[in-house]
Amino acid sequence: MTELADPIVPDADSREFTVAARSQGRTILRRFLRHRPAMISTVVLILLTLFVFIYPYFWEWPFTVRDKTALSKAPSRIHPFGTDDLGKDGLGRVMRGTQRSLEIAAISAILITTIGVTLGAIAGYMRGVVDAIIMRFTDLILTLPLLVVVAVVSVGYPKAPWYIIPVILGIFGWTGLARVVRAEFLSLREKEYVEAARAVGAVDRRIIFRHILPNLAGPIIVSATLAIAGAILVETFLSFLGLGVRPPDVSLGFLIQDGLSAFKVRPWLFWFPAAAIVIVCLCVNFIGDGLRDAFDPKQNRIKA
Amino acid sequence: MALLEVKNLNVRFPTEDGTVHAVRDVSFSVDHGEVLGIVGESGSGKSVTAMAVMGLLPRSTQIDGSVLYNGSELIGLSQKRQTSFRGKEIGMIFQDPMTSLNPVYSIGWQLAEAVQAHSNVNKKHALRRATELLDLVGIPQAGTRVNSYPHEFSGGMRQRVMIAMAMANNPNVLIADEPTTALDVTVQAQIMETLIEVQERTNIAIILITHALGVVAGTADRVMVMYAGAAVEIADVDDMFYRPRMPYTIGLLGAIPGSASRGHPLRQIKGTTPSLINMRPGCPFSSRCPLVIDRCRHETPKLLPVGHSNQLSACHRSSEIESLDVRAMFAPEVTA
Amino acid sequence: MFRFILRRLLVSIPLLFAASVMTFVLVTNIGTPKKIEDALAKPNPSQQQIDSLRRQFGIDKPPVERYVDWSTNFLTGDWGKNATGAEIRPLLWERAQVTIRLLIAATILSVVLGVLVGIIGAVRQYTAFDYTMTFLAFLFFSIPTAVLAGFLKEFGAIKTNPWLRHPSISGRLQIVLLIAGLVCGFLVMRNRYKFERERPLSKVLLGAAAGLGIALAAIVVFRIGWDGNVYRKRNSKNLIPTVGQTTPGFKGGFVARMQDYFWHMLLPSISLILVGFAGYSRFMRASMLDVMSSDYVRTARAKGISERRVTVRHGVRNALTPLVTIVAIDFGALLSGAIITETIYGWAGMGSFFSNALTEKDPRSLLAFVMVTAISFVGFNLLADIIYARLDPRIRLD
After folding, report:
1. Per-residue pLDDT tens over the stretch C363-397
2. Which one of B273, C98, C246, C327 counts the least CB within 10 Å of its CB?
3. CB atoms B287 and A19 under 8 Å
4. For residue range C148-196, what is the model confidence (pLDDT) as tens digits?
5. How close are the terminal C-alpha atoms of chain C, in Å?
6. C298 touches chain B (CB under 8 A)
7. B94 phi and psi angles, rounded to 5 deg
8. What is the C-alpha R_g of chain C?
9. What are the residues facing B74 on neighbouring strands?
10. A156, A229, A282 ranked by CB distance to C31: nearest
11. ipTM of the assembly?
């Protein structure tokens, strides 16, 4: 991969024949914009996020309020997503649940990326003993099944606020990214241009932040995107074991679990949050795919 | 009738940025036992031309024109007819021997596969033939080496294996696509020697693609120079080196150090090759040519006979070139 | 080879030791076992009863001493008893067998499906088939197991069971089938000729006709051979069960027993297969695309062997190498990955063992579970390396 460089200006003589050379960043952006599923997904995800965060202020049934005149009702004009057995509005709860799930996903993605990149970079740049220690630790965490560890840890904090979930996920979910970053660091630090930077007296910090990390933007961004989808799925798993957010708060995983338990009587309580979670994850996965294609220099594909 | 005749070959690749017109109206022919050198810088369309002849381009490629082998058309053949042709009539060797052999099969297996592709012999027989082939290209202890895997061979050895594989069915034409570019200088000479030896023994016609003029000078009978997807000059090897009639060829010759340039400063061709997307009419070399006139920018020159014998040049001013010192018009190389 | 295995096993000993310590720390942190909590919640808890419970769960000593006790016992094969007083080791072994039965079926099918679809997707890149399969793979990636299970229960069992009792196809469904056949046949043949110079309309129409014919044949076969046949009479109860790995108290010969297994396995294995299929088909497609654009495939083509042979002997053979190791590693990881699936379908496998242990907050069951999965992870990783070395002559294990 090459550095995100300034546009190469072709000299005047040859300009009449060349298509204007583009900068790396703009090429990536252009490739992403052309990736139709990714673009549609971006728009859908943005609209959905705006909707679930803004519309609750205008919606008359907040997720905790009970409509005692409509208990266990199928979707109708007043309650488009139906109500549960206590008369809580389905739409209000799905909006709130999506909010929570998105927040959980965002926090854990940020944590995973930060920890993964930091440890991977330290291991790859320092090498030697530090590297060995970090990598053995990574092996250790990899040996233990993530879902199981997260579940076991969550059991220990029955009264903790909701953000304990993404924190635990962040603490145990960084290993994959750290390995990738470390491998890239090991190879990039030997590259000639890094040697050159070192020769002209660049300090470690400058080399890491200016010369190596920009080259890793691709894998890091892609992995962060996919971590979002992963976190949403793990949250569903935890809710399934009864370890997710605690009532009266709700998340999508919680709503699905709730809906599944009364599936035969009130199927709408299952279908709407299920649709929401699939839409969110599908969008995120497509965006990740689009980003991967955009960052991959081999992807200047021939159109069929 | 020539053994292999390429007429008005055009190759276009559809890409995200637009259609790349990689080979533009290229025509040439090769006779029995002849060695044709194709010279040009990377991206000039030499390899694509070869791949089009072999039918190895991706299916989405648009190929127009005609490739006649012994008078029969190769372009537009069904995939089945194409495979019965490849390897049997035309063999090919590639640039990078390190990646051109399948790492999971033994050398003998891969050679035998080539043998069995076109002749109905059993495995044992094919393996015996494989050993003979390894012997032919000068691999010592061929009998035991035939069971080795590619990773146990050096780059030069692997390229010999590639030559052996291309020769497996005694084809009439061998296309060598930059056979020495990826090798050490000493090994390069050995590989060229092997090629020449094979050529002399079998009288096979060779299309030798390279960007090294020195390689061409020593082996080729005729040379085609390509620039930006077009053939700009075709000539016998001596004419090409001593009486070039195209400014680009002259520029190329001026840029190589060696006996031909002794006593003169080395020259460089300033500028870069034009993009092959959305090319305008006009000579592709006009942006870098010291002899450029207005006509060059608007009218694409045709490849026409010049002077004596069978020399062809695509230059509006080819008739004047002999009287000018074009070489001196290129900027001298500035050395620090 | 032997030395390599030995060395790897020696290296994994400290790793597993560290894993056990870490798990022990995590498990110590989960709080009081549920049984003790319950006992304490009673109006007047008896100290004696609580003490005996603490002894039963092995939490009557300070942590370090507890770890030493647990690990020596664990190594000698005494894994302790769980909350209901059952021996953990035989119980876990019994559960593992159930899980492995499900995993083997699901893994084989998802690998076969994924590999086939991946190969076709790569060879026929950017065709309708490729786009459809790509979308499906992304969809299956994005569906949480719980949602998929709900979906399968609804449409795979609750909606289909009455139909299976009285199978018939409505006129509307027949029309839909016919149109689908027509469109599929058309698309298949159109994509077949996508890159050829001539795109014969006759072939495309022929494809459409063939698709229509297949759909028609299916309907005819169904009407003659299925509609109103034995199923209507014999199958009074629900054919596709949604709960359990066998019918409780089921008696019958070997064949009947296998059938019972089969129908119980249907939904949970589909659930696992779809997710596995998504991953393997994407991986195989990428791997295959990579290989098919490699230099040695170009060499193989230049030899003049048939495109089928190029695809299979050079393309697939080389693309499979990395996939095989992924499958082996996944299989080791799946022992714990099937937790939700098993729990939802009420399978008494590893998954429900874990979720029971978690609800009971039973430290020794959890430890046993994590250690077994960790050992299987290490073991299958080793296996993956050995297979890789077998498949790629460049790799030497020593």
Report:
1. 888 889 989 988 988 888 888 888 888 888 888 77
2. C246
3. no
4. 887 888 787 777 777 776 667 777 888 888 888 888 888 877 776 665 5
5. 7
6. yes
7. -115, 175
8. 27
9. none
10. A156
11. 0.89
